[in-house]
Each structure stands twice: as C-alpha cells, then as structure tokens.
Amino acid sequence: MVDVPVQAVIFDLDGTLIDSKQVIAEAYHAAHAEVMGADAVPPPFSEYCRYLGRSFPEIMRQMGLPLEMHPVFMRESNARMHRIQVFDGIRELLGTLHERQVPMAIATGKDHARTEAILGCLGLLEYFGVIVGSDDVARPKPASDMALKIVDALGLNPATTLFVGDAVADLQCGHSAGMQTALALWDSPVDEVRRHPCNYRLGQPGQLLNLLEVWRHADVATA
Hints:
The chain is an alpha/beta fold. 38% of the residues lie in helices and 13% in strands. The chain folds into two domains: 8-19 and 84-222, 3-Layer(aba) Sandwich (Rossmann fold), CATH 3.40.50; 21-83. The strands form two sheets. It has a seven-stranded mixed sheet, sandwiched between helices. Strands 2-3 form a two-stranded antiparallel sheet.
C-alpha cells in the first residue's frame, strides 16, 4: 500500500462513473454499418474494448477502421444518451468527496462538449472542478497530457492525486503524470486490464473513501 495520502481525485468517465458500454457498442455497430455497409462484418466489440479510455479516432486507428465512422458514432451515441446510467455507489461517493472538499476532475476519451452534456444530464456536473476531454489536449490518454492539464488547472500535487479508471490508458496516463492509480473493477474490465500494474484495485466505489481515511487499515486490495 502507498503511504502518501490522497488529496485529490481524477476520474475516467465511461466504465468508471457511468455505465455506457451498451450505448457505445450500439453506436459503434451502427457507425460501422453506415460507413462500411450493412453486409460488412465489424471487428468484435471486445476488440474495441481493448482500447477503452482512448479517443474514438484513436481507437479507429488502432483497429484499422475509417475515421469517417466518428461523426456517425457521435450522432448515434448522442441519440442514446438518455439510456446512460450512473453506477451504484457513485453518487454517494461523489457527494461525500464534495462535502469533504476533495478536488475532483474528469479525464475522458470523450470530447469535452459531449462529456459536459452527459454529466449535466445525469446531474453530476457540479462535482468537478475541471473536465478534460480528448479534444482539449494534443496527446490524449494514455499520454500524461490530460492529467497534467488538470494538475496545472487545480494546483494539485501529482503525488497526492489519485487517477481512477477502468482501462489501461487510464492507468498509464496517471502513472506517467506521477500520480497514484486505482483500477475500477465494477464494470468488469478484461483480464489484460486487470493484470496491468496499479496502486489499488477497487471492487466498489465506496472503497475509494478508505484511501482518504484510514491508510494502514483500508479495506482495499493493493496491486
């Protein structure tokens, strides 16, 4: 266990705060069918999930798919925004952190405007001092740019900042910025992600509070 106290938290969005995987899957398949043709067989969504945390254009590059899918994906995912849910325990976690005046921020592979729209729709926007989308930096996750932009904006110490996410890109971003990292397990990340080094593995959102309270007796599984 790391003995440096956590004083600020950066969250990924999809798979960490919000349950959006089904919406993403449907938008991905709709975009592939429109751009590539209804008869074209898309790479399995499980391959897409290998690159979660990255921007959609970067995922397309990794999968060898055309960037023309991006505007269609945006349209289809926006049309399904009302179906996105907040994971159990997240509202309580954010409310408690807010009450304790713990600085919070978002670093997501989504673009900034869509991130704000989703958070606003879900009633979560007020909790975050800074939101950084993939279009706000030159190098999105897994590079450190997003995390460091938040550090600069909020005046944070990277060593006492925790980056929480459900993807390898999240853990790499936080680590390369000199932060502590925590893997969120409640959206069942694939084995490749579970094996990636991190400081903490959180089985449920409420466990994050233990990192802010009793360090040597926290009910958190360390890496």
